[in-house]
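Sharing a chain and its predicted structure for anyone who wants a worked example. Both blocks are below, sequence first, tokens second.
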Amino acid sequence: MAELTLKSEMFRRQRESDWKKLETLIGRVERGSVKSLSDEELIELPGLYRAALSSLSVARATSLDQGVVSYLESLSARSYFVLYGTRTSVMERLAGFFARDWPLAVRSIWKETVASLLISVIAALTAYVLVTNNPDWFYSFMPESLASGRTPAAETEFLREGLYDGGGDADGLSAFATMLFSHNSRVAIFAFALGFAFCIPTAVLMAYNGVIIGAFYAVYIDRGLGFEVTGWLMIHGTTELFAIILAGAGGFKIGWSIAFPGEKTRGDSAADAGKTAATVLGGVVIMLFIAGLIEGFLRQLITSDALRYTIAGTMLLLWCLYFYGPRNFTAERES
């Protein structure tokens, strides 16, 4: 044991000056930037890094003091990041997310997006037909807290007024937007997070969201207000519903990768799918925030059907072009 300790001390004394010099240079880069080093120091840095790796290899092979091994492992890892890691600012990362990462992630799950959309549409059509033929179905599909008196028993004039009444001051609308953002975010996160259970809970949530919309439409179309309620709903719905469908698609992506991992292990398959789905979800939260602002402010402040349809169509067109329009992602990555 004494002999091993002596060898460890000799090993450290012979090489410690180079380690300390490397540590000093790395520390300066970490606290500032590579520009803080002189030309001579930049040329010397790779050689010091290779020497540290060599020392680490020897220390491990000869079972030297564990403290020396741990120190060299940490120093080598820090040096590798400085030499070969990508050092980007927060603004550069945000720019990369919006310009490349988010739209690419959405494109990669287009099949899951179609599945999420189809489930929602089929559920909405089913609920619409059932409520149209038997209004009692409405109460099975629509939670009372969301109905807010908009039921088959409501007067037509009451339903019409709800579509055009500004209903409060700016502060009230702001609070309403915040509440809707929180509610819709929870729906999207649940649809995403529950996908791991082989997609089943996500599919149920997509269907549930669909039947609520179908039942809601059945009430208004029955009173001849289909055109009006579409403008009232879609001014924010083209963003909000798109976001929820994408969140469901992210859940399907994870669930499908677990159910059918292919040649990978289920853990590796889920991890890979999770990275893509998490990128999508990050963008979904932004979409829901935008939808919450539109729903809380513009929907009730703008009472023109034509303007509501214009905003709804414009938002849908912009989202489709952003996600699926022709773009050169390779050029954006290089820039």
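Comments welcome. DSSP finds 14 helices and no strands in the chain.
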